[in-house]
Structures are given as C-alpha cells and as structure tokens.
C-alpha cells in the first residue's frame, strides 16, 4: 500500500487511534484507512451493519465468559505452582492445552470487539460473495475455527493475527524471495524473528518465535529450542511425502479412513505442541519457561527431534511409494513424468 505523500499529524494519529483498532493496534494499512475516511457517499455500503456486528460482539462475549469462568485457575502461571508439579504427566500436558486456549481467548475477545466496531462504521464491508451476500470480513484478524481446528502450522499461521501476517508476508517474507525462485527455510526463520522483535525483547518471545541460543539469565544457558518456524518447515517436508498417499493416485479423491487419520493426527500434534510452545509468550521469563517445559520433560523438543529423524529415514521410501502408485495406476508418462489428470 504505497503512501504517495506524507500524512498530516491528524491523519496519522487518526489512523493510530482509530477506535476500530485501538485495543489491538492499527487494524488496517494506512492507505486503506485514508481511502475509507475520504470515500464519498456513493462509495459507502448501503448494507445493514447490525446483524454482522451483533454476531461479532456475541462471539467476543462468549470468549469473555470462558475467560471469566476458567482463566483464573487454568493458565500458564498456575503451572508454576507446586500443585501442578504434583499432577501426573498426562494431566500436566492436558493442563497446558487448557492454558493455551485461555491465552488465545484473550485475543479472541479483543479482536472480535474490534471487528464489530469496524463493521458498525462500515469499514468492515468487503464486497459480495458469489451468491450476492454482503461480506464483512475486510478487517477480520482471526478465524477462530481455522485456529482451533488447524491441522498444520501453516494453516494455523494463516488463521491467526491475519493483519500482521499479511504485513509480514508482503514486507518481509516475499522480499527475501527473488522472483522466479522458491522460498528458502531462512525466509520463514527471519520472518518469525521480525515478528518476535516487534513484540518486544522479553526472552519468552524468542523461545516461541525462533531458537533461543546462548542467552544467559539467572544462571541458565538456553539451548536451541524448536520454534514455530522450524516446525512449519518440518511440516511442509512431511506433507510433501505423506499427504499424496492419503488420496487416490490421481490426487482427486481422498481415501476416507487414511485422510481422516492424517488430518486428526495433524490437528492433535499441531495444537498439542503449540500449547506448550506459547507458554513463554505469557510467562515471558526464561526461568519460568524452563520450569514449565521441564514439567513436561521438554516434550516438544523430543517430538521435533524424533519426527525429524523419522522423516530423514523414511522420506526416500515414501517418495518411491508415491511413484509406484502412480506407475501402477498408469499415470506415468513415457518420459517418467506424471501425466496431467483432469
């Protein structure tokens, strides 16, 4: 969104303190805000804003009720107490799953209210769908079913903090990918590092977003931790090897049992590991993070190392298996390439 001229102080601070995004930071790019505020009457949607705004408000109130009910007792700070340490391992692990939901619910509340405010003033209008129904998702910042039902870290990232992810994608990630080339793993790592830096400089942000390396605090030396970026890279590699096997050889139809099993395992591992990883996002300090992660025996790190080793050993055989299935189905062309299917 190119800014062709410097904004006045009123324009800039109007954007920064626009009530639709005041609780959550600017809800849109500056030029989107300027185009909306300068729009004439003929450019403003005539659709009713009330029902979509009420739905967003109710959504925020629902998660507000969840927070009031459970957040005082189910949170990452409770995992610092002796009572949590006395729980069996599986209960400690399950407790962190609930704590992760409580942490995300805080964001669901403020983002839903911000979305409702943007809809009320007409800013949330995003044209019409194929059936002629008005869309009000222009400034939506989270797709809750997409987050809670994510079967991979890629899908989770696409549904969470959408506005920030769009900014990171266009202004960081894609700028490191030369035209005509494929993204490299370093692009994702640097992008997550930029995300960590804008959150602040508490060590906890870096345990989540990237590797914490040689950071000394309270006599702790932080060894290399698995981050979202590394898990996302690993997930892409596994997907390329395994997911085609969950479909018919032509890639058109999913195999009901195997595809369901693949998606279920993806959801359990994605959310299970994520709810451990985001603990430092709340507790912030390395000593507190170490306390929680020790309580689950650094399960997420062992998981990453084990799955990485399995991928390294198995992926040649999985790729060979894919090729044999295609050959058996007669979908391999004479030059050895896969035939195009309709």
TrEMBL record:
Signal peptide: none
Classification via InterPro entries: LPLAT_7/PORCN-like, MBOAT_fam
UniProt main location, coarse: membrane
Key words, A-Z: Acyltransferase, Membrane, Transferase, Transmembrane, Transmembrane helix
One GO term describing the cellular component: membrane
GO biological process terms, semicolon-separated: glycerophospholipid biosynthetic process; lipid modification
Pfam annotation, one family: MBOAT
GO molecular function, one term: 1-acylglycerol-3-phosphate O-acyltransferase activity
Membrane-traversing stretches: 217-235, 256-281, 301-321
Subcellular location: Membrane
Membrane topology: Multi-pass membrane protein
Listed name of the protein: Lysophospholipid acyltransferase 1
Source species of the chain: Apophysomyces ossiformis
């Amino acid at each position: 969104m190119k800014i062709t001229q410097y904004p006045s102080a009123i324009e800039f601070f109007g954007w920064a303190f626009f009530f639709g995004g005041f609780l959550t930071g600017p809800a849109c790019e500056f030029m989107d805000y300027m185009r909306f505020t300068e729009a004439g009457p003929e450019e403003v949607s005539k659709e009713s804003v009330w029902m979509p705004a009420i739905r967003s408000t109710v959504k925020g109130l629902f998660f507000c009720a969840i927070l009031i009910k459970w957040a005082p007792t189910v949170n990452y700070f409770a995992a610092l107490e002796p009572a949590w340490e006395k729980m069996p391992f599986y209960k400690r692990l399950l407790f962190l799953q609930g704590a992760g939901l409580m942490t995300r619910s805080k964001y669901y509340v403020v983002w839903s209210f911000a979305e409702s405010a943007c809809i009320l003033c007409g800013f949330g209008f995003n044209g019409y769908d194929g059936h002629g129904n008005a869309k009000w998702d222009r400034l939506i910042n989270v797709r809750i079913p997409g987050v809670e039902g994510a079967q991979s870290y890629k899908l989770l990232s696409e549904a969470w903090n959408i506005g920030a992810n769009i900014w990171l994608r266009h202004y960081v990630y894609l700028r490191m990918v030369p035209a005509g080339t494929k993204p490299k793993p370093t692009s994702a790592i640097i992008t997550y590092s930029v995300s960590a830096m804008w959150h602040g400089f508490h060590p906890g942000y870096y345990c989540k977003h990237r590797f914490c390396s040689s950071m000394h605090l309270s006599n702790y030396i932080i060894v290399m931790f698995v981050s979202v970026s590394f898990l996302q890279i690993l997930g892409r590699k596994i997907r390329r090897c395994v997911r085609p096997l969950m479909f018919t050889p032509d890639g058109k139809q999913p195999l009901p049992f195997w595809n369901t099993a693949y998606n279920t395992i993806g959801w359990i591992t994605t959310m299970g590991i994520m709810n451990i990883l985001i603990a430092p996002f709340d507790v912030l300090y390395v000593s507190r993070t170490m306390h929680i992660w020790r309580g689950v025996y650094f399960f997420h790190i062992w998981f990453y190392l084990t799955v990485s080793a399995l991928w390294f050993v198995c992926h040649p055989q999985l790729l060979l298996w894919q090729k044999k299935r295609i050959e058996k189905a007669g979908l391999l062309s004479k030059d050895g390439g896969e035939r195009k299917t309709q």
